[in-house]
Amino acid sequence: MANELRFDGKVVIITGAGNGLGRSHALLFGSRGAKVVVNDLGGGHTGGGKSSAAADKVVEEIKALGGEAVANYDSVEDGAKIVQSALDHFKRVDVVINNAGILRDVSFAKMTEEDWDLIYRVHVLGAFRVTHAAWPHLRDQGYGRVIVTASAAGIYGNFGQANYSLAKLGLVGFAQTLALEGAKKNVHVNAIAPIAGSRMTETILPKELIDALKPEYVTPLVAWLCHEDCSENGGLYEVGGGFFGKLRWERTKGKTFRVGRSITPETLKQSWDDVVSFEKADHPANVNESMAPILTNVQAGPSRG
Ligand code: NAD
């Protein structure tokens, strides 16, 4: 295909690539010239067990299509080993796709510390450890792309997923800060909130939806965000079933009281409509834009009237 976006010579680590979304990403990168580290612990969808079969199968699939790939069976909690595997086999690392995940869905009232901790360790600590081990390599070579896999459950909340919501929205903040820290070195970090039929969602969604929401609908976004030609950095995207959209923050114009005057709960109650009305709104894109109206008001000082 003319102008095909390729990854020749690039080394791509994909965690949790033995199934679902990760497998789909691995096959696409493998088909476009990348050398792929197919990481998968091979456990169950709630975190128990271990097997090499899932990663091995995807490596075979990539090789059968003429691509290059190696399997790695470490948990993302041992992120440095996964990055070492890329260095040992392919001598470099260019792209890190933090995709590995499990669920421990239970209402907050019934959630145990184990449910909480396991989700944190796989999604958050795992993404930290893999990305942290790759980070100096990406920076030193002046090119790197990192993806974190967030979720609508983190952005909007979802019943029975307090642990998962924390982890997934935490990853968005993580990505946004890394995006700032990596920008000068051409290391871009973006977050996706996908929806796809997989063993993770097959117990939640009806079969027709599972069949329709193929992971392959998510992968093109991941590939584009990771390509050298793509300058996007620090973004959050919802993606699935053929839909691709970017999110941003929206904040009401709010209500500003000059400093120095007494502001009571009653004053606030009276102005509440102004505080919460989105009729006019801002879209702060960074901490400076977020702070601007606050600083302007403070610098204006107390009212004279
Ligand atoms: P999946 O269960 O099909 O695949 C996840 C893979 O991660 C599995 O192969 C599993 O063995 C692997 N894994 C789990 N723990 C691991 C660990 N500690 N180390 C290494 N590998 C590990 O699920 P999926 O739907 O493809 O999910 C992929 C990612 O997308 C997850 O982070 C998930 O939270 C996220 N996500 C999925 C959906 C969806 O609709 N499927 C929605 C939002 C977010």
Automatic annotation (TrEMBL):
Signal peptide: none
Transmembrane stretches, start-end: none
Keywords: Fatty acid metabolism, Lipid metabolism, Lyase, Oxidoreductase, Peroxisome
Main location: other
Compartments where located: Peroxisome
Ketoreductase domain ranges (all copies): 10-198
Keyword Repeat in record: no
Keyword flag Oxidoreductase: yes
Family membership noted in the UniProt record: Belongs to the short-chain dehydrogenases/reductases (SDR) family.
Name of the featured protein: SDR family NAD(P)-dependent oxidoreductase
Species the sequence originates in: Pendulispora albinea
